[in-house]
Structure formats: C-alpha cells, structure tokens
Amino acid sequence: LAGCGDKDAAGGSDDGKLVMGFSQVGAESGWRTANTNDIKAAAPAAGIELKFSDAQGKQENQISAIRGFITQKVDVIAFSPVVTSGWDAVLKEAKDADIPVILTDRAVDSQDTSLYKTFLGSDFVKEGKEAGDWLVKDSAGKTGPINVVELQGTTGAAPAIDRQKGFADAIAANPNIKIVKSQTGDFKRADGKTVMEQFLQSTPKIDVLYAHNDDMGLGAIEAIEAAGKVPGKDIKIITVDAVKDGMTALAAGKINYIVECSPLLGTQLMELAKKVHAGESVEQRILTQETTFTQEQAKAALPDRKY
Ligand code: AHR
C-alpha cells in the first residue's frame, strides 16, 4: 500500500491531489521568508500537496532536491534557482521523466527553453533601472561628483546580475554619478553591515548606497549609524523589495526610495501548476506586477503592508 501522500500510478497523491515539489533558495532575507510563507499557504488553498525543500543557499542542495522530486514522481516541480547557470542536466532529467518544471522568482540561463514550462517572477533589470532613474532625478542640477557604493545580491543570482545592469544603464548618461565600490552582501542583513563597514573605512566620500535588497540596506544602516553618519541624509539609500522592515525604515527617513519586488507568487504558481499538469499551454514568461515607494508613499502604505 502506498503511504499517505505517495503518488499513485496515474499521477497525483493517493488522495487524488496534485503533488508539487518546490525547491526554495533558503531563508536569506525577509523577502524570502514572505515568499516561502505565501507558497506554503497557497498550496493547500489550491488543493495541492506541497513537498517543500530549503536549499540553504546551495545549488547542490537544489539539484539533489529536484532529483529527489523526480524519484518521488511528483506531478510538477517548481523552484527558485539560487544562481542562473548549471541547470541543464537536472532539468533534462525532469523533462525525460515527463515532469513539468516551473521557474519562480529567478531565471536560469539555459539556452533550451523547452526544459521548463514557464517563468513567473519580476523583471529585475527594470527594478535596477527604476532605482537608477530615481537617483538621476534626485541628482538633477548637481554637477559635482556623486559617489555611489553598491551592495550586490548573491553572486551569479539573476536579481544580482540584472539589478546591477539596470542601475548601471540608468545612470550611464550621467558621468558625475559614479559607482565607486561594488561588492556582494549575499542578500543578507549581516553581510550588508560588514561590507558597508568596509566601504565606510575605505571610501572617504560616499553620497549614495544602492543595495540590491532591503535586508542588506538595513544592515548597512547599522554600519552608517555606528560610523556617526545619518542614513537617508548624509548617505542616501536606495533598496529593492519593500518588505515591512524596509518600508518602516523608508517611512522613518532612513531609506530614500524602494523599488518593490513582490514575493507573493504562491497563488499564481498554483494556478500555473494545475494548467501545466493538465497539459494546457501557458505563457513562457509571466511578469509580476509591482510599484515603487517614496518616503511619503511608504507612510501611506505601511499600515496595510502584509509582509
Ligand atoms: O530573488 C529575489 C531576491 O532574493 C530578493 O530581492 C531578495 O531579498 C531575495 O533574497
């Protein structure tokens, strides 16, 4: 007899539910926690059995989780790839086993797009561009040098690559805006603090911090305050995500601008899983709807912020 939750011969669990194997990046940020909570809530609400695996930031853990899902013959595999490259072999194994794969949040660089059914998530290049556009507007009329330090996300991850590019493109026509330091803080608050401490020690004049997520920005704020400077004033701060902690710092004037990246992908993901399992065609790329926040907009939005 199959155990509870085992897949029967016709697919699905033995109680007839569609089974999804989901490999999450880890728990590096407030965004990630909100994303995990949303997916865990959306699965039962959609009548889907979720097998959830936390890769703790390691690609090898994600690859073995995906191989495990293939062995367990889940109906659909979904994952948020920690980095963009190195997925072809395991995605081919899933394809050979006839298990559809959905990418959520982050992209892979596989040339063969038949290895996955769809990619649901944000346009990270656009997010970086919006961050840069804000700085260009804020710097209008200033002719002296504007020194920017950048806290990058996880090296090799799609949001780090794309947010760096979008920002660089947006400021390119303004030679007085210069990225004087750029280093990874791995999307983590503690790393954001440590790297910002190093930036402050090595760089006499920092005008702006661009952090690829709120958490690194919040860590950097601790370093800036410890160095006797006023975040949001002495050093302007732009971040991405708009999680509650980030929005609170924005409303308090410690961050100047946040570009939203929505972690609430669960409901759409479950709908897509049902469709690909039923053999229906879905769009290859599904973009998440998101916005941007000034300090005033953050004050207005905070009371209703869900994550
Ligand atoms: O992939 C989305 C990014 O990953 C979020 O911006 C960041 O906070 C997270 O860790």
Automatic annotation (TrEMBL):
It is found in: Cell envelope. It comes from Actinoplanes palleronii. Belongs to the bacterial solute-binding protein 2 family. Residues 22-280 form the Periplasmic binding protein domain. InterPro entries: Peripla_BP_I, SBP_2_dom. This is LacI family transcriptional regulator. Pfam families: Peripla_BP_4. PANTHER family: D-ALLOSE-BINDING PERIPLASMIC PROTEIN-RELATED, GALACTOFURANOSE-BINDING PROTEIN YTFQ. Its main location: other. The keyword Signal applies. PROSITE patterns: PROKAR_LIPOPROTEIN (PS51257). Keywords: Signal.
